[in-house]
What we know:
The complex is a heterodimer of chains A (93) and B (173).
Chain A: H1 4-12, H2 14-43, H3 48-72, H4 76-86
Helix pairs in contact in A: 2-3
Chain B: H1 2-7, E1 21-26, H2 33-53, H3 59-90, E2 92-96, E3 99-107, E4 110-117, E5 121-127, H4 131-136, E6 138-145, E7 152-158, H5 160-172
Amino acid sequence: MVKGMDILNFLSNSQNWGLLLLIIVAAVFLLYGFFIFYHFIRFGVGGKTKVLALVFFIGACFFSAVTLVAYQKLDWTAIFQAIKNILPNIKPY
Amino acid sequence: MPSRIINSTNSFRGQLAGEQTVLVARRHWIILCGPIFLLIIFALIPCAIYYFINQTNWYIQWVDFFWFLAAIYYFFLWDVLFYNLMIYALNTIVITNKRVIKNEQTAFFRYASAELEIAKIQDVSVKVHGVWAAVFHFGDLEIQTAGTQNKFYFDRVPNPEKIKSAIMGLQNV
């Protein structure tokens, strides 16, 4: 069972913020992509819509791979540090 | 087998027994030009940003983050492109040997379908308005029936005369 403390510990690591962002983005894009793919296959008339679904699927796989590779190269600690340096005047309540 | 998928253009959801597809028409491709032009403009934005920021000192620090955001952005544009293609591809007129079926898709899980029996069609009229319509051969098609069924109106269909003659030809069979 996940406790509140576990969530706080998870969020205290800045690398996990990046992971959380990636999961949210991936979930939204996967759902959106699935809907498009489903509509092409389920409601499309003729073969052209199936070909479009295939092209969309290949492109979505490509962009997913590119996004994952770009994510792996990121250092979220450095990014959050840089953001803190850019915004020094913003103080928490 | 991909070749079989490409050639299977004569089947659709709700097809009756013994019903054969004569013609499947979508709106003219010119209606896709606007969204695709906008998407091309939006696709150039990260390139323009890259052109301006790659000469700055802080670019080295942010380069990975920039490409991560750019990858998400292009993924989003890919989805938007295919959403538009989906709406375009799923708005169809299917003419079979028994019926004329109009499928309208306006958004995800939001569609309407209506049909007319070929035997009840009384009049088919074609309207071509404007220079672009004349140059690119598209126009509006109106199908009037004898009964209480609603009349059909299809806007910006390619070669409306061809569709009209296909319907008239089926009535004479």
